[in-house]
């Protein structure tokens, strides 16, 4: 499954982290059935995205993730020069993504979240506990990049209209959606023997129960966000995606969110970020510590 890592000793730390980040993005894209998102079944609520584009986009980001890890290793500490280097590399990564996809935003939020976490993991490879990585990522996100262009993104429009601060705030708070919701649910569902794909779907649903996802707010407003949060909670309350009733409700949620055009892209990015820190913390973290 993780072909990149077959010869871990020949890869540098930065290359291993880039592999893990790209793997996490591909695992997220392939996970099915995700409500209203691109997956193996189709395009969800998106007219301009498809699975092949998500895969190509994920692969195009490998050099940016590697460069972010190298910048962190070189810096050795959280400081403004590192934050600004990450901002520059992140913008270059976004340009590579847009060149690959013909201008479609496939992974903007993921570059942000995974980029910070890759750098945070590279700063102290021997400290592979998820909470410690998230805290270092938060300290990076709290620093102001003086070279960041003032953009009028969907996120800034949603911030003005609804007060939701989206991807930036999630990182600055230390990724509570990952540490408090996704990771505990992923591990609970695994422990209950639900199987890896169901456990990942449950982790995505756990994120969706509370996230102020700016993709959903932009596309479907507060009714869309309410439908996403309540619908995800109802699937988990019914026993999660491994149970018959939960599956039925998951199918209903997929239909409802597609009808509302409410694709939870921010939640999908955070699931990828969750899979990344999970692999570092649990065993595969040896990939980093062995260096
Ligand atoms: C912070 C970012 C994501 C800007 O986001 P903004 O809120 O302005 O909006 P935009 O609509 O362009 O993108 C939001 C993205 O975040 C994801 N998202 C939406 N809601 C949330 C949420 N609540 N939590 C986390 N992610 C979310 C979405 O999938 C979407 O792709 C980012 O684009 C940015 O500023 N990048 C600069 C590059 C940089 O500094 N990189 C260095 C760190 S790696
Ligand atoms: N499997 C997935 N399916 C769909 N979106 C995903 C998936 N994984 C992650 N995403 C995230 O969702 C975002 C796409 O959402 P959206 O299409 O609303 O983006 P946008 O550029 O803000 O809007 P628009 O396409 O309307 O211009 C991407 O930035 C990406 O980070």
UniProtKB/TrEMBL annotation:
<keyword id="KW-0067">ATP-binding</keyword>
<keyword id="KW-0808">Transferase</keyword>
<dbReference type="InterPro" id="IPR017555">
    <property type="entry name" value="TriPribosyl-deP-CoA_syn"/>
</dbReference>
<dbReference type="Pfam" id="PF01874">
    <property type="entry name" value="CitG"/>
</dbReference>
<keyword id="KW-0328">Glycosyltransferase</keyword>
<keyword id="KW-0547">Nucleotide-binding</keyword>
<dbReference type="GO" id="GO:0046917">
    <property type="term" value="F:triphosphoribosyl-dephospho-CoA synthase activity"/>
</dbReference>
<comment type="function">
    <text>Involved in the formation of 2-(5''-phosphoribosyl)-3'-dephosphocoenzyme-A, the prosthetic group of the acyl-carrier protein of the malonate decarboxylase.</text>
</comment>
<comment type="similarity">
    <text>Belongs to the CitG/MdcB family.</text>
</comment>
<protein>
    <recommendedName>
        <fullName>Probable 2-(5''-triphosphoribosyl)-3'-dephosphocoenzyme-A synthase</fullName>
        <ecNumber>2.4.2.52</ecNumber>
    </recommendedName>
</protein>
<dbReference type="GO" id="GO:0016757">
    <property type="term" value="F:glycosyltransferase activity"/>
</dbReference>
<dbReference type="InterPro" id="IPR002736">
    <property type="entry name" value="CitG"/>
</dbReference>
């Amino acid at each position: 499954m993780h072909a990149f890592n077959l010869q871990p000793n020949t890869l540098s730390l930065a290359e291993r982290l880039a592999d893990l980040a790209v793997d996490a993005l591909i695992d997220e894209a392939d996970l099915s059935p995700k409500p209203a998102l691109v997956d193996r079944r189709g395009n969800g609520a998106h007219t301009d995205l498809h699975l092949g584009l998500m895969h190509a986009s994920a692969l195009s980001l490998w050099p940016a993730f590697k460069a972010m890890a190298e910048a962190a290793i070189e810096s050795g500490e959280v400081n403004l020069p590192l934050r600004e280097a990450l901002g520059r590399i992140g913008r270059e990564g976004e340009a590579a993504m847009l060149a690959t996809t013909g201008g479609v935003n496939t992974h903007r939020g993921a570059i942000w979240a995974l980029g910070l976490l890759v750098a945070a993991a590279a700063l102290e490879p021997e400290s592979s506990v998820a909470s410690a990585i998230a805290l270092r990522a938060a300290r990076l996100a709290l620093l102001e990049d003086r070279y960041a262009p003032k953009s009028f993104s969907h996120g800034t429009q949603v911030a003005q209209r609804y007060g939701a601060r989206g991807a930036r705030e999630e990182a600055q708070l230390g990724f509570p959606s990952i540490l408090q919701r996704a990771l505990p649910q992923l591990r609970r569902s695994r422990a209950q023997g639900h199987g890896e794909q169901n456990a990942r779907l449950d982790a995505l649903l756990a994120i969706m129960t509370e996230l102020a996802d700016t993709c959903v707010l932009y596309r479907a407003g507060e009714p869309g966000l309410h439908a996403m949060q309540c619908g995800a909670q109802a699937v988990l309350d019914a026993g999660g995606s491994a149970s018959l009733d939960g599956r039925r409700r998951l199918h209903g949620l997929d239909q409802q969110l597609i009808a509302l055009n409410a694709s939870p892209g921010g939640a999908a990015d955070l699931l990828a970020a969750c899979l990344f820190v999970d692999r570092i913390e649990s065993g595969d973290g040896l990939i980093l510590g062995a260096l």
